[in-house]
Amino acid sequence: GEEVAQTPKHLVRGEGQKAKLYCAPIKGHSYVFWYQQVLKNEFKFLISFQNENVFDETGMPKERFSAKCLPNSPCSLEIQATKLEDSAVYFCASSQEQGRIYGYTFGSGTRLTVV
Amino acid sequence: KQEVTQIPAALSVPEGENLVLNCSFTDSAIYNLQWFRQDPGKGLTSLLLIQSSQREQTSGRLNASLDKSSGRSTLYIAASQPGDSATYLCAPHTGTASKLTFGTGTRLQVTL
Q1: pLDDT in tens, A12-46
Q2: Ramachandran region, residue B98 (left: φ > 0; alpha: ψ -120 to 50; beta: rest)
Q3: Does A104 sit within 8 Å of B100, measured CB to CB?
Q4: pLDDT tens by residue, B4-16
Q5: Distance from CA of B16 to the nearest CA of A (A)
Q6: What pLDDT does residue B10 have?
Q7: Chain B residue set in contact with A, beta carbons under 8 Å
Q8: Taking CB atoms and an 8 Å cutoff, what residues of chain B touch A55?
């Protein structure tokens, strides 16, 4: 498709529970990026993939966060043992290359609320 | 580390005004810069992508300029409308890090 599809739109988890978010990139886009938006406009880069390989994971909190992009499946971002501070909107973006020429296309986000 | 600042943080204007949103960034080694719009509770919509070799890019009532060497970009909105009310974000794509860094955003309200 021509849009980046993120599911679910909203997710509520009790503290300590697991959360799993999904992202289907635009067909033909080989790069996928995950960003976390906390507060109003603070975007934090988490991780990027080139196909199924991790490209850059410098923003990932290693202890509880993990992500995968497997062939023929949506990419996923998983948070084990969620904490209140994980409440945020998680955005996924995809690009044909590293975004250097055509830029990024973002999904509509998944709002995670940890209670 | 790339740092991006947007001025003003918030702006309220009457319909019909032309306005300028400013973005400054500290690392000029960028591939491109994207301007996005975010409506409350919604995702990011790409408005304009300006390459590092370009000075300007236009789409309808929007015009973005880029001065890479001085680390500045501006988004010009002509004849503003209430439907333009949203938060506008600039995001340079930094070469060394190969990812977008977002600015702090400008929250725009256009009133009737």
Answers
A1: 999 999 999 999 999 999 999 999 999 766 899 99
A2: left
A3: yes
A4: 999 999 999 999 9
A5: 27
A6: 96
A7: 31-32, 34, 36, 41-46, 49, 51, 87, 89, 93, 95, 97-105
A8: 98
